[in-house]
Structure formats: C-alpha cells, structure tokens
Amino acid sequence: MATVMELAADIIAAHASTTPMSKDELIAELKELHSALSALERGEVPETVESAEETPAVSRKKAFGKDKIYCMICGKGFKTLARHLKTAHEMTAAEYRKQFDIPRSQSLAAKNYSESRRQMAVDRGLADNLAKARAARKNK
Predict the structure, then answer these.
(1) Angle at Cα 89 formed by Cα 71 and Cα 49, nearest 5°?
(2) CA angle 29, 35, 36 (to 5 degrees)
(3) C-alpha torsion sign, points 85, 19, 40, 1
(4) What is the pLDDT of residues 37-78, one digit of tens each?
(5) Is the pTM of this model over 0.70?
(6) Nearest to 67 by CA among 79, 57, 59
C-alpha cells in the first residue's frame, strides 16, 4: 500500500498536470494535502477544512483587481470567477457573494476584461441589433 506522502504526491502531480503552478505553490499544496491525508488516516478532521471556511484566502480589496479577480476561497486569479466557483468549489455566484458579504453591484469579473468585452460588443453593433430585435418583437 502506498504511503501518505506517495498518495499526496500523486494527487498533486495530477492537479499540476492540468493547472499551471509555481514551485512554491506545489510545495505548499503538497504539505497541506499531506497533513490533511495524515489527519484523515488518524480519523481526525483536517485543519485546512475548518480554517478555509473561516477566513478568506485574499482580502476583498486585493480580490477585485483591474486585470484579475482573485478567488477569496483559494486565492487563485482569474478573468472571471463564475466558472471557477462552479467547478472548483461547487457553489454559485450568489452563494459566494453571501459567504463573503459581496454586494450584487460588484462584478465577479476583472475590470479590464469587462471593458474589453463591452467594447467588442459596441464594435460589433450588438446593442443596435438588440434594439432592432426588440422592436420587431414588439410590433408582432
């Protein structure tokens, strides 16, 4: 049977093969996973599970940047959080907002990303097309 360290290394290797990680992130995640697996082996609740729900990994001020928005649960940066929340943390944007007391007016996408998408829509004339479609539907 594999040791706890071998199991942790296998899990981290699988995670690192799909997610770009720095050397420091790999080492930190390996230590965290090893301690969690060791605690489970002893029949205890891992410390990381308890502490992760209590304090955010990133402050709210740092979480909402111009180029990236950081997940307050795990601290990773993204252009938009919706997909990450659903896949990595199995939660909706509403649940995330409630957990960290984030107002609905705060976007869960990076400011520069939102601006570039808005400008692309303007350049393509999507607002004009939408207005035409609404007018045509109203006239039916």
Answers:
(1) 90
(2) 85
(3) positive
(4) 888 888 887 665 444 455 788 888 889 989 999 999 988 999
(5) no
(6) 79
